[in-house]
Design goal:
There is one protein chain. This protein is of the alpha/beta class. It folds into two domains: 1-78 and 154-209, P-loop containing nucleotide triphosphate hydrolases (Rossmann fold, 3-Layer(aba) Sandwich); 88-149, no CATH class. Helices cover 32% and strands 26% of the residues. The chain has seven helices and ten strands. α3 packs across α4 (134-146) and α6 (214-221) crosses α7 (226-236).
Length: 239
């Protein structure tokens, strides 16, 4: 039996004013893998992620997520979304934040303890979020997205500004989640994170330059890394 893709995007157009942010964009993302969305600032990464979670007005095109039209209310319980800025309250504790979001999501008993362990924040559960470091706040924000055990995790530059050790910890967790069956779409402008993804979508000026594995991109361009492949594709144009 054919497994239905996690995400199907067909001929997606998004504009802001007179600017075309995404242009006739089509792609398919399989289930249970980590797909990296890479490109420079302004390439359309955040806009595409907002389309996936149903938060972006689209001029044209269709986006299907987990078999449903993006933005369908049922998907709220099946998707976890982490924005660039940690979406947690700074004036209450880590545990209180998670208790609050757990009730909203009806996550069930034990969810708070589980996610505190998953993001390695158990020892900080009683600290005010406002006293945490940027990396610690990012982990609390990620914990809120994991409370309801989502099938799809959409992460908008979750490692930006983090030290290499913490970045490595988060990527280890992302791989553990993917191995358990969670589909992960993660955006980044850090090209060396490409090696941690199962497949890559390279974006530039709202268009897909390539959608392939890193090995395929290296073979196609002759480059030794993702950054070299990206620059080569900028010169030769999209696939």
């Amino acid at each position: 039996m054919t497994v239905q893709p996690a995400i199907v995007v067909e001929h997606l157009d998004v504009t802001r004013g007179r600017n075309e942010v995404l242009q006739d964009l089509s792609l398919t993302i399989p289930r249970g893998e980590i797909t990296g969305l890479l490109g420079p600032s302004g390439s359309g990464k955040t806009t595409l992620l907002r389309c996936l979670v149903g938060l972006q007005v689209m001029r044209a095109g269709e986006v299907t997520v987990l078999g449903l039209v993006a933005g369908t209310p049922e998907l709220r319980r099946r998707i976890g979304y982490v924005t660039q800025a940690p979406a947690v309250y700074s004036d209450i504790t880590v545990a209180d934040n998670l208790d609050y979001f757990s009730q909203i999501l009806d996550a069930g008993p034990g969810a708070v303890a589980r996610v505190l362990h998953e993001v390695d924040m158990e020892r900080h559960r009683d600290r005010l979020v406002g006293t945490l470091s940027g990396g610690e706040r990012a982990r609390v924000s990620l914990a809120t997205a994991l409370l309801h055990s989502p099938e799809l995790l959409v992460l908008d530059e979750p490692t930006v500004g983090l030290d290499p050790s913490l970045r490595d910890q988060l990527w280890t967790m992302f791989h553990e989640l993917a191995e358990s069956g969670v589909t992960i779409v993660v955006s980044s402008h850090v090209m060396d994170e490409a090696e941690r993804c199962d497949s890559l979508i390279l974006l530039r000026e709202g268009r897909v330059l390539a959608h392939a594995t890193l090995a395929e991109l290296r073979e196609r361009t002759g480059a030794s890394n993702a950054e070299g492949a990206f620059l080569a594709l900028v010169r030769t144009g999209p696939e």
